[in-house]
Automatic annotation (TrEMBL):
Record note on quaternary structure: Homodimer.
GO biological process, one term: phenylpropanoid biosynthetic process
Superkingdom of this protein's organism: Eukaryota
Xref: Pfam families: Dirigent (PF03018)
InterPro entries: Allene_oxi_cyc_Dirigent (IPR044859), Dirigent (IPR004265)
Record-linked Gene3D superfamilies: Allene oxide cyclase-like
The family this protein is said to belong to: Belongs to the plant dirigent protein family.
Physiological role: Dirigent proteins impart stereoselectivity on the phenoxy radical-coupling reaction, yielding optically active lignans from two molecules of coniferyl alcohol in the biosynthesis of lignans, flavonolignans, and alkaloids and thus plays a central role in plant secondary metabolism.
Protein's UniProt keywords contain Signal: yes
Signal peptide feature range: 1-19
Source organism (scientific name): Pisum sativum (Garden pea)
Protein name (database record): Dirigent protein
């Protein structure tokens, strides 16, 4: 070994001895345990992102022996907009506007009156589907619903199963509303990007 090679050898030995316990590598190790970039192939995300349009009807049933929508908090005193009231829902989602038409899932979550000036609901719900390959997958909606407007738009903030990494929006249009019972049927059109 020439003296130059010998020096290089020692130089690398010095470098490797020095880098292993250095703070940079221990930081790398710590962040590796907590977070690391991964190849999207590992999550099967090599397929092109799809855009899908789902259409179904959401039934808010307050009347009868088996309501799907139950008031769990009353409105604050004297509120004309039901401000403060909260309904927990497990509302059927059907293909057609009739409750007897095919059930494709349930809307599970709650809506709360969040406006003192008008009827403005905060919607927080998961569309839990049971139809076909979407059985077991869900879309999460979190948004503002000024319920008396013709079309209300709410963001899709995510999803599970086939809706991992989902984003998009839902448009709600009231199909029918019974002022006596409070029962409502609302058409939902959901536009969602997913894999
Ligand atoms: C509600 O309205 C009644 C009747 O107008 C009034 O007497 C009462 O003070 C009001 N309550 C609140 C909390 O504003
Ligand atoms: C959906 O999946 C569940 C659990 O895997 C199963 O029990 C149920 O029969 C399925 N429903 C439909 C409509 O396929």
């Amino acid at each position: 070994m020439s003296s130059q090679h010998f020096l290089t050898f020692f130089f690398f030995l010095f470098l490797s001895c020095n880098t292993i316990p250095s703070s940079t590598s221990s930081q790398n190790k710590d962040t590796f345990d907590f977070v690391r970039p991964i190849d999207r192939k590992l999550l099967g995300l090599t397929k092109k992102e799809k855009l899908s349009h789902f259409k179904f009807y959401w039934h808010d049933i307050l009347s009868g022996k088996n309501p799907s929508s139950v008031s769990i908090l009353p409105p604050s005193l004297n509120s004309t907009t039901y401000f403060g009231s909260v309904n927990m829902i497990d509302n059927p989602l059907t293909l057609g506007p009739e409750l007897s038409s095919k059930l494709v899932g349930k809307a599970q979550g709650f809506y709360a009156s969040a406006s003192q000036a008008e009827l403005g609901l905060l919607m927080a719900m998961n569309f839990a589907f049971i139809e076909g390959k979407y059985n077991g997958s869900s879309i999460t909606i979190l948004g503002r619903n000024p319920a008396l407007n013709k079309v209300r738009e709410m963001p899709v903030v995510g999803g599970s199963g086939l809706f991992r990494f989902a984003r998009g929006y839902a448009q709600a249009t009231t199909y029918s509303f019974d002022y006596k019972s409070g029962d409502a049927c609302v058409e939902y059109n959901v536009y969602v990007f997913h894999y």
